[in-house]
């Protein structure tokens, strides 16, 4: 069924354009390129006016600006075929990995982390946009009307965001909200602990920080580093807004880079709000992108400029009915880079095996408790309980061995290209 025609999207776009062209009307497109610096793809090389960005190697491309918010069927979008191609590549890359990657999303409060995650989820699916990660300003734990907001990691395994039924092992994404622009040793240690997987899902990050501040960094290290590793991070996506008026979170960026390098984790950069702040027309946006890239030391194939699905870009929220492949393509190009296997990815480490065993024991413990409880409260004969218990153990063991065999004995040969 066709969606009612939207009236306000054009108005919203018009006002955005007005901002772009009025606010920066002193900037002439050509002037931007004339100040060429060697090798910097933002600037125009000395080979004349025919210069075009290299779309194959440069993720920070300028394709987003042709987004047609009025389309009613994603197949109408000229980027539809490109999206399908990228989606196939991404899925192919994940099909034969031994375990899904853990991808952490970090950035200053309000930069668009949760919106970006929802955009990634929409891109990887083929139906419509959903708000899996809750958007809004929750990050700064003291600034939300003076309330103390509890900070914890929020993870999104494939089962939570992927609606299709196929065997690709898409990553688990971890929304790391509430990290301030802070390069203190305590913040650095917290990042280290999170990236090593020493912090549990529901654990309150404020408590770890409070512990470190009270007892000192040495005791904090002793307490948390000796822990068992729950979920080691394989890739990091550092998100930052393209808004040149917002402060560059340099202290946070440098700390993330330092810890990621120490742990040998590959990191990527994402600049949001590309619908409003366009490097093509605004020198300040260009400088911001350059500063972001230089602070992280990123090559251009690890940096993407994205427009997130959010009410700002389409006030009618038509993306609740259909996807916009023009928004998905830059995100999927980045995802294809991220999902490309690295040498350490496919191996199960000791922590993973221990996790498996714990999961196994937990199941037994749960069933055992139910059976023992039924013996006391329902006065069931003990021998019946015992036999049921043994049968269930056998069934669980067989099921477990089957899943283990299917899950971890596939050949590792995935490369889409
Ligand atoms: N115009 C525009 N707005 C965006 C974009 N991405 C996010 N926003 C808006 O920015 C605001 C904050 O986005 P969130 O995704 O909640 O930011 P966050 O980083 O998760 O925030 P915290 O969890 O509080 O740290 C929301 O109002 C979004 O609608 C974008 O690409 N373009
Ligand atoms: Mg958020």
Automatic annotation (TrEMBL):
Residues 40-53 have a biased composition (Basic and acidic residues). Keywords: Membrane, Transmembrane, Transmembrane helix. SUPFAM superfamilies: P-loop containing nucleoside triphosphate hydrolases. This is Uncharacterized protein. The keyword Transmembrane applies. The chain crosses the membrane at residues 357-378, 384-406. Residues 26-53 are annotated as: Disordered. It comes from the Eukaryota. It comes from Mytilus coruscus. InterPro entries: P-loop_NTPase. The keyword Transmembrane helix applies.
């Amino acid at each position: 069924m066709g969606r009612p025609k939207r009236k306000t999207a054009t108005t919203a776009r018009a006002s955005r354009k007005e901002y772009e062209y009025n606010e920066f009307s002193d900037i002439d497109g050509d002037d931007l390129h004339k100040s060429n610096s060697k090798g910097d793809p933002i600037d125009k090389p000395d080979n004349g006016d025919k210069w075009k960005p290299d779309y194959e190697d440069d993720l920070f491309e300028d394709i987003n600006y042709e987004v047609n918010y009025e389309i009613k069927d994603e197949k109408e979008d000229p980027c539809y075929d490109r999206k399908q191609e990228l989606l196939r590549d991404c899925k192919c890359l994940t099909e034969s990995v031994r375990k899904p990657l853990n991808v952490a999303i970090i950035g200053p409060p309000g930069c668009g982390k949760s919106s970006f995650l929802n955009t990634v989820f929409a891109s990887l699916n083929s139906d419509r946009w959903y708000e899996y990660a809750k958007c809004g300003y929750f990050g700064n734990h003291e600034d939300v009307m003076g309330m103390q907001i509890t900070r914890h990691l929020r993870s999104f395994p494939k089962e939570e965001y992927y609606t299709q039924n196929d065997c690709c092992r898409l990553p688990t994404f971890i929304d790391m909200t509430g990290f301030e622009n802070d390069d203190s040793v305590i913040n650095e240690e917290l990042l280290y602990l999170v990236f090593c997987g020493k912090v549990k899902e529901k654990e309150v990050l404020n408590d770890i920080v409070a512990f470190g501040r009270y007892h000192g960094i040495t005791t904090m290290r002793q307490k948390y580093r000796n822990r068992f590793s729950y979920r080691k991070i394989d890739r990091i996506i550092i998100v930052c807004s393209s808004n040149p008026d917002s402060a560059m979170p340099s202290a946070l960026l440098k700390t993330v880079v330092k810890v990621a390098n120490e742990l040998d984790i590959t990191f990527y950069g994402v600049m949001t709000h590309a619908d409003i702040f366009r490097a093509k027309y605004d020198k300040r946006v260009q400088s911001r992108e350059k500063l972001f890239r230089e602070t992280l030391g990123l090559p251009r194939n690890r940096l993407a400029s994205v427009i997130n699905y959010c009410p700002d870009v389409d006030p009618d929220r038509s993306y609740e009915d259909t996807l916009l492949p023009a928004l998905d393509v830059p995100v999927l190009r980045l995802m294809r880079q991220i999902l490309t296997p690295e040498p350490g990815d496919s191996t199960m480490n000791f922590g993973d095996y221990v996790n498996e065993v714990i999961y196994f024991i937990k199941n037994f413990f749960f069933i055992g408790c139910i059976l023992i409880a039924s013996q006391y409260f329902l006065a069931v004969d003990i021998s019946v309980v015992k036999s049921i218990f043994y049968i269930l153990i056998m069934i669980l063991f067989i099921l477990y061995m089957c899943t283990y065999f299917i899950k971890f004995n596939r050949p590792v040969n995935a490369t889409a290209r």
